[in-house]
Amino acid sequence: MDKKELNSESLEKVTGGFTTFTETDKDGNTIITKFGVINLCSGCGECENACPSGAITIGPDGAEIDGDCCILCWSCADVCPLGSIGEKRIIIPAPTAE
Ligand code: SF4
Ligand code: SF4
Predict the structure, then answer these.
(1) Fewer CB atoms < 10 Å away: N or C end of the chain?
(2) Which pLDDT value is given to residue 48?
(3) Beta carbon of 82 within 6 Å of any ligand 2 atom
(4) Which of 6, 47, 56, 57 to probe ligand 2 with, by most ligand atoms within 8 A of CB?
(5) Residue 40 Cα to ligand 2 middle (Å)
(6) Is residue 97 assigned to a domain?
(7) What are the pLDDT tens digits along the chain (98 aa)?
(8) Of 56, 50, 59, 53, which Cα lies nearest the Cα of 79?
(9) 62: CB partners within 8 A, 6+ apart
(10) Is 70 inside a domain boundary?
(11) Looking at ligand 2, which atom is closest to the CA of residue 45?
């Protein structure tokens, strides 16, 4: 895929492409990890080429990650020329006994 030039149109198309993983740590806290495009995406396809699981497709809004295939190896984040792939974490504390 040819690299697209970044322009105002592509800026407006950045929507995410997140996939979400939920786990519980040893203390019972729920950790929600949203992994995906956290910044501007040019649609260059470098991440798609680097993914060992075929989890990434490049759509009209940029990279999309399929959580059913993703193994969280971070290869896509390593090759992204814009540093646009990463994670956000939300931690929900375990309920306390009353
Ligand atoms: S973290 Fe690894 S498996 Fe998941 S989308 Fe990126 S390259 Fe593919
Ligand atoms: S490598 Fe980065 S800029 Fe290129 S398509 Fe993937 S997320 Fe977008």
Answers:
(1) C
(2) 97
(3) yes
(4) 47
(5) 8
(6) no
(7) 333 444 444 433 344 567 777 889 999 999 988 888 888 899 999 999 999 999 999 988 889 888 788 888 999 999 999 999 988 888 999 988 66
(8) 50
(9) 10, 13, 14, 15, 17, 37, 41, 42, 43
(10) yes
(11) 5
Domain presence at residue 1:
no
pLDDT at 57: 93
Q: Is the CB of 38 under 6 A from ligand 2?
A: no
- Ligand with smallest separation from the Cα of 79: 2
Give nearest CA residue, ligand 1 atom 6.
76
Domain harbouring 21, CATH code: 3.30.70.20
Report in angstroms the alpha-carbon separations of 21 from 44, 52, 69, 72, 90. Answer: 25, 19, 12, 10, 11
Number of structural domains found in the chain: 1
Q: Domain of 41? A: 8-92
